[in-house]
Amino acid sequence: MKQPSASTPPTRRGQAESSSRRRRSSYVSAAETKALFAASQEGRQARLNAGDMVSTEEAASIAGTSRVTINAWIAKGRAIGLSQTRRGYRLPRWQFEPSIWEVLPALSQALGTTGGWAILSFLETPLGGLEGASPRQAIEQGNSARVLELASSASP
Question: Residue 87: what are its φ and ψ, rounded to 5°?
Answer without folding.
Answer: -55, 145
